[in-house]
Design brief:
By secondary structure, the protein is α/β, with parallel strands linked by helices. It has seven helices and 15 strands. Bound molecules: 2-oxoglutaric acid (AKG). Pfam families: CN_hydrolase. Belongs to the carbon-nitrogen hydrolase superfamily. NIT1/NIT2 family.
Length: about 300
């Protein structure tokens, strides 16, 4: 399917229940991490969500030294059938079987991925439908390279390569745009997804103790209001014994910028009922989607 034909028919936005898993106990043992993530997906499914979300980097500790060690070959190509049975990725197999067992959509957080042909390593999100099919993926486009003296230095580009595509997927209840964590700081990505018809944007993330309190909520509310969409980030739980201390505070924001739900720091499952009425009312009451001045500045979503 070409992008143009995919864009032509966004699904009608319908009410749905979203579950965020703020996953804890992410340690050095990948099998244990996968086992725990699977248990938490099954637990989340008991609240009857339509879509379950895991956090960024849920199968390994978070840090550039870990990415190549934990990386798995996925080999997904948009628009081409993917045979889960032949997948080399144990994480993909677990996520697929969990989605199928729970009969829900699943955004599988992110995992380090090794590209089979280039050997480059990416920070990759994979998405599954209720039949367990891998239907979409997103390779983190903007790598988290920051240096705030005395606070935090992080350089994903030491071992990761940035993705080169924007991505969304269609369910029977919404078109959902994808990003990963630092991607939120680049408003163009969210803007492009919204202009492509996404009503909901979901970014697995893992902010830290410096930027979390400053920007985690601000950025999500900003992207939600700019684009008049629902916006959600799902974080790992905070583990102060780990090398990286995640901020936590997984949340869902509505198109008016209201925080609908927010986790604390620990392991937690959050449920939110997403109501399209808020989306329609925001767009009708403050009609910025009709008032853009592409005669004054360009539309970043054109020509992708
Ligand atoms: O942008 C930030 O402050 C944090 C980003 C981050 O933790 C990430 O991209 O994994």
């Amino acid at each position: 399917m070409t992008l143009m034909s995919k864009l032509a028919n966004p699904p009608t936005f319908k009410p749905f229940r979203l579950a965020l898993i703020q996953l804890g106990s992410i340690g050095a043992n990948k099998s244990d991490n996968l086992k725990h993530a699977r248990e938490m997906i099954l637990k989340a499914a008991s609240g009857k969500p339509d879509l379950i979300v895991l956090p960024e980097c849920f199968n390994s500790p978070y840090g550039h030294v870990h990415f190549p060690v934990y990386a798995e070959k996925i080999g997904f190509k948009p628009g081409e059938a993917y045979d889960i049975g032949k997948s080399e990725s144990e994480s993909v197999k677990m996520l697929s079987s969990a989605a199928k067992e729970c009969r829900t959509w699943l955004i599988g957080g992110s995992i380090p991925e090794r590209d089979a042909s280039s050997d480059d390593v990416y920070n990759t999100c994979t998405v599954y439908n209720p039949q367990g099919e891998l239907v979409a993926s997103h390779r983190k486009v903007h790598l988290f390279d920051i240096d705030i003296p005395g606070k935090i230095k992080f350089k994903e580009s030491e071992t990761l390569t940035g993705g080169t595509t924007t991505n969304f997927f269609d369910t029977d209840f919404a078109r959902i745009g994808l990003g990963i964590c630092y991607d939120i700081r680049f408003p163009e990505l969210a803007m492009i997804s919204a202009r492509q018809g996404c009503q909901v944007l979901v970014y697995p993330g893992a902010f830290n103790m410096t930027t979390g309190p400053l920007h985690w909520e601000l950025l999500q509310r900003g992207r939600a209001v700019d684009n008049q969409v629902f916006f959600s980030m799902c974080s790992p739980a905070r583990d102060t014994t780990a090398g990286y201390h995640a901020w936590g505070h997984s949340m869902v924001v509505d198109p008016m910028g209201k925080v609908l739900c927010e986790a604390e720091e620990g392991e937690q499952i959050l449920y939110t009922d997403v109501d399209p009425k808020v989306f329609d009312e925001a767009r009708a009451g403050i009609p910025v989607t009709m008032q853009r001045r592409f005669d004054v500045y360009p539309d970043v979503s054109v020509g992708l």
